[in-house]
Amino acid sequence: MKNRKITNGIAFLLITLVTVILQFKHLNEIPAYTHTWAQNDRLALANGFVRNELNFFKPQNYILNHQFPKNWSDPSYSTITAVEFPIHDYVPAVFMKAFGTNEPWVFHTYILIYSIVGFFFLYLLSKKICGSEVKAALVVVFAITSPIYTFYQGGFLPTIPSIANTIIALYCYALYFEGGKTKWFRWALFFFTFAALARFTFVIPFLSVLGFELIRIFQKKARFWPNVLAVGVSFLVIFAAQYYNSTLRDTYGSDFLSQLLPADNWAEMKSILEHMWEVMVLGYLSMKHYFLLFLLIVLVFIALLIKERNSYQVFSSWWIIFLFWIIGVCLFWGAMTKQFYAHDYYFLDTFYLPIVFFVALCLSVLPKPQWYFGETVMALFVIYFGMLTFRETSDFQQQRRFFMAGDHFTGTVMNFEGSDEFLSKSGVAREDTILVIHAYGPNIPFVQMNRIGLAVVGHNPDDIERGLNWKWDYVVFQKPYFMEDVYAIYPQILEKVEPIATNENLILCKRKTDTIPQSLMEFMGVKAPYKKIRFNFESSKKSPGLAFEKDSRDSKNQIGVVVENEVYGFAQDFTKEVGPDTKGRVLKINGKFLRKNERPIGIIVAYSTGNTLAFYQTIDLTSVSQANEWTEKEFILFLPKRSSVNEKLSFYIHNASKNVVLLDDFEFTFYRN
C-alpha cells in the first residue's frame, strides 16, 4: 500500500511537471493562432458570467447580433446566447470574480488543473487495465504528448475537462467492474453525465459502457434494477439541459452550432478525408505515436498467434466497450464530416480517447517480459519514447504559434490588444455599443475591448450597409484590414463615418454629420511619408534575383526580369528604412508588372532573424492581373511591431512555380503609423 501511494505520487508529480514545462510560458496567452474564434467564444462566455453577476442560467457573450438563426443579420440587442451546459466557462468566471481580474491565466489554470487530474486518473485506470505501472506510464506518455492535445490542454475549450471526466468515469466503472460497490457505478454515471453535459459528443463513451453493462446483465454478471434509476436520472439531466438550451436558442439565438453537418456526397467526403490526411494527420499524433500504434498492433497479433498472452485478463472483455466506442465516433464523424475539415479539435471530441484506450488494451494483451531486467528495459523504452515525443510536440507548439499575415483571426487579436484602454482614453464609455466591420470571429475584438457590440461578418456592400443602419455609438476598424475588407468593397464608407481617434492598429469613428470629403490616408491616420525608394530599372546595378532587358514597348526603356528559375526575385532588404525602433510601419508599394503565364506568382514582405521567420505577408499577383498584359497596382501594407530592432524586413517576388515576371517603375513609400 505504501509503495503504491509513492508510485502514484511520483506519477502525479511527473504529470504536473510535464504539463508545467509545456504550458507555463503560455499561461496568460490570449486565445490565438489556431481556432482563435472558438476559443475566444469561450473566454467571452466567462467574461459574460462575470458581467451578469454569475447567473448560470443566462449565459452571455459580447455579441448583440447572434449567428443563429439569421447568420448575424438581425440584431436581438441581447448578449444572452444558447450554449451547451457552460459549467467550464462558469467556474473560471467564479474565480475571475473572486480574484478581481479577467486575465486569461485564470481560465488557463482551471483547464490545466482539470487536465492534470484527468491524466492522473488515466494512469490509475491504465494500471488497472494493464496490471503494470510501466505500461500505465506508457499510456499516459502517449496521451499527454499528442500534439493536438498539448495545444488545447491549456486552452479554453470544454473538450479538455470532458476528456478528464470521461477518464474518471471509466476509472470509477473499473472499480465497480472489479466487484466494487454500486456506489462506484453511480460515481461513473455522475462523471459520464458531467462530460456529456459540457460536450454532447461524450455521450458516446457513456452509451458504450451502458451497452457493455447490458451485455453483462444478459450474462447475469450484473444486476439491472439497482442501477436503472440512476441511469434514468443521468439521461433525464442530459435531456433537461438540452431542452433548456433549445429554449434559450429559440428566445435569444445562439453563437454555437447545434445542427448536423454531414458531407453532401461521396466526392465531398473523399475530399475531406484527403484534406485530413494531408494537413491534419501529423497534428493529431506525431510519427512516433503512429509508430507505437503500429508496433503494438504487430506485437498483439504475434502474441495471439503464438498464444502468449498476459495472464492478467481481468479487463479483456473491455474490448467490447472499445468496439462500441469506435463505432459511435465513426457514426458521429459521418454526421459532422464538414466540421472535421477545418476543426482539428473535433479529433479530441471523438477519436483521441478511443485511441488512448486502444493503446491501454493492447498493452494489457502483451505478456510481462520474462527476460532479465525486462521491466527495467520497458521503463527505459517509456522514457526514451517520452523524450522523443516531448521534443516533437514542443516543436509543434512553436510551429502553431507562428503568425502569418493571412491569419486574420490572430491578426485581429493582435490589432485589438490594448483596445480597452485606447477606447477609454478616447472617451468611449463601458456602456456604449461598438460596431466592428469586418469582424474575424465576432467575439474576438469585443473580448479585447471588454465592451458589447455588433459585428458585421459578411464581405459584401449589403452587409456593411445593413450594419451601418443598426443602433450603435461608435464603429471601430482595423487598419491592416480596412483596405481589403471595407474600403475596396464599400468605398462610400468615407462618406458615412469620420475618425475621432487612431492608434497603430485601430480607427475609432462616429457617424459623419457633414459632407466635407476625407482622404483615405487621413482617414486611416497615416501621416506624410518619411522615406521613398524608387526603382525604374534603367541602371543595370546588380540586384539579388533580378535580370535586365530592353522593354519591347520602348527600346529606350529598360525593365527588370525575374527569370523562370529565380524563386526569390527582386529581393530587397528594407531593415534600415523601418527605422531604429520596433514600432509598426505602413508600406505602400506601387509598381508595374507583367507575368508571362498562369502559374502563381506573388509578393512577400517578411520579418526574420537569421533563418527564422517571425512574420510574413503575401500579396497574390495572379488574381489581380492577366497573363502577358502589363498591370499597374498599388498595395498598402500595415506592418506589425517587430519583436526586436535586429529583425530584418525583406521584400521579394516569390516565384516558386517558375513563372517569368517583368517589372517596371516600382516605388516603396514608408510611413510611420
From TrEMBL:
Topology class, membrane: Multi-pass membrane protein
Coiled-coil boundaries: none
A single GO cellular-component term on record: plasma membrane
A molecular function (GO) term: pentosyltransferase activity
Species assigned in the record: Fluviicola chungangensis
Cellular localization per UniProt: Cell membrane
GO biological process: lipopolysaccharide biosynthetic process
Protein's UniProt name: Glycosyltransferase family 39 protein
Segments crossing the lipid bilayer: 7-24, 105-124, 136-152, 189-212, 224-244, 290-306, 312-333, 345-366, 372-390
Alphabetized UniProt keyword annotations: Cell membrane, Glycosyltransferase, Membrane, Transferase, Transmembrane, Transmembrane helix
Glycosyltransferase RgtA/B/C/D-like domain sequence ranges: 86-239
Main localization category: membrane
Top-level taxon in the UniProt lineage: Bacteria
Signal sequence residues: none
Lineage per the UniProt record: Bacteria, Pseudomonadati, Bacteroidota, Flavobacteriia, Flavobacteriales
Keyword Kinase: no
InterPro entries: LipidA_mod_glycosyltrf_83, RgtA/B/C-like
